[in-house]
Amino acid sequence: MIVSVGVEPSDWFYHTLEIYDFFHQRQYSVRYVHSTLKMANLWGFFICRKMGRPFLPIPNPRGYERQRLIQAYYEKDRKSRQPSRPLTPEMLKSCHRKLNRWNYHWLFLSVWLGLRPQEVDNLRDKNMWSVERLGNGRRVLWVFQTKIIALPLEDRWKPIPILFSEQQFALKILNEKSFRRPIMKTMRKYFGAGIDLYGGRRGFTDLMLANGHSLENISVWMGHSTLERTWKSYKDRRRYHLNY
Questions:
Q1: DSSP 8-class letter at 143
Q2: CA 126, CA 124: separation in Å to the nearest integer?
Q3: Which of 76, 104, 173, 195 has a CB 3.0–4.6 Å from the CB of 99, allowing a cystine?
Q4: Which domains are seen in the chain, by residue range?
């Protein structure tokens, strides 16, 4: 980073966007960016103090810049891996007593709400979700989509109706904030190498179809811009559903 940017540590703060561009081009994760900036700021402070120069630390990316880095990393991750196999409610239930409570709840949210991993993590922030109560007594969970950066803020919310007792339990988990993302080692240990953190979202389409809901509605609940996206990428072609 230091060599590529080619700027003295005392001037890093004034070239913050160039430094963010460096990370964006290499498609680093936000967590890796934070770790790198922490070390760089420590080193920059040491050098500037030794040379008698002022030093302002590089701030961690926020807002649009943070979302840009997340999107770049997502695209890299998606190209480098095979799509996850679906994680079904039955599979999750079979590991209920093996997983710790926080990891189990995180996966439960993923399975029954069909959320992206980052969206599940974001649910710890109350500003990223809200619950609307309709006139018929039903509730709708609105989730902010940080991945969708091309739309205005008001158009980046997606609705997920609370239709099942499992989804009602999901709301309880949200209010308690009793969930934490499992590491990949945990996923491989209990579900095998073919299922990753997208497993719950991967199985959501067929889970909802099996319960009699239309693909059009499911596509909206997943936050997809087109029905084709839901069908092509998230429907298991080996499964069919007979609803009488």
A1: E
A2: 6
A3: 104
A4: 2-80 (no CATH), 89-234 (1.10.443.10)
**Span 113-127, average pLDDT:** 94
Are the C-beta atoms of 205 and 111 separated by less than 8 Å?
A: no
How many other CB atoms are there within 10 angstroms of residue 229's CB atom? 13
Backbone φ and ψ of 155, nearest 5°: -95, 5
Run of H or E residues at 141: strand 139-144
Tokens 């719950």 sit at which residue? 200
Residues 199/116, Cβ–Cβ less than 8 Å: no
CA separation, residue 57 to residues 14, 46, 62, 87, 200 (Å): 10, 11, 15, 42, 39
pTM to 2 decimal places: 0.70
For range 185-212, the mean pLDDT: 93
Asked if residues 146 and 63 have their Cβ atoms less than 8 Å apart, the reply is no
* pLDDT surpasses 90 at 116: yes
